[in-house]
Amino acid sequence: MDPGSPLRSARDDGAEVAKVEEKAKAGTGSLTVVGLGPGEAHWLTPAAQAVLDAASDLVGYGPYLDRIAAREGQTKHASDNRVEIDRAGHALRLAAEGKTVAVVSGGDPGVFAMAAAVFEALEAGDPAWRSLPITVEPGITAMLASAAKAGAPLGGDFCAISLSDNLKPWEVVTARLEAVLAADFVICLYNPISKARPWQLREALELAARHRSAQTPVIFARAVGRADEGLRILTLAEAVAAAASADMATLVTIGASSTRLIARGEERPWVYTPRSVTKSPSATSQGRT
Ligand code: SAH
Questions:
Q1: H runs (alpha helix) in the chain
Q2: Measured from the CB, is residue 91 less than 6 Å from ligand 1?
């Protein structure tokens, strides 16, 4: 890894390592769930970097751990994406043994990610774990990174829904979508599609098209903050047709009725949602129109 990158792991002066070893001997372990941000090194907060530097053990999904260059004395515990609760239990056990554990998530660890898994494992696990010092260190979540690139689509009220039906029935997803579509929220869709879930995004967008104009702006933001980043501004009608072109690294934002574009010639238009709302959702028109 580029030694100049903020994702480098640690001052190698040995002082941190000694501190970690001392803590481990004293049985004073700790666990921090830390957000790595969407991908770009300069979007990792200094506080998150400090947690990575100080950790004796790094726990997480393999590709996230790959983004961190472990320093000498640090142990990486990589696991599959689907075993979040096991991974969280493993991290709590390590902390109980006296390790300084960092559990890593992409984006923010509290948004559809490891922080909830850690608390779920804590709730169900060894009561002694409850006295462990646990910290959640925030990161920039995908919807904020995507919104910043597009302009200001989240200027009005918005919500986030995961389209993954691994952890909840699809009927719950559609009921929630119906509710927020009726209430005229801007809607951010996480986990829009995967090989195992190929049709959900199209169905969600078709549902949106029954409530909102075909011209409603929709943002497909892919791998924001990474080398292969791609941002597409579509109409809702185009988005329905393009649903299959999204992938697991895409965050989809569906505009509210007041979300609009500012054309910039050849440049990609800005997308924004005005902050002021003058009409009720039942009038299906928001903002200054
Ligand atoms: N904790 C993460 C979200 C985990 S759910 C966060 O706060 O961002 C995984 C989903 O997040 C992906 O399917 C995708 O919808 C979204 N996502 C994560 N990183 C992204 C990125 N760099 N660009 C666009 N979407 C991203």
A1: 15-26, 46-54, 62-66, 84-96, 114-124, 142-150, 170-182, 200-211, 236-242
A2: no
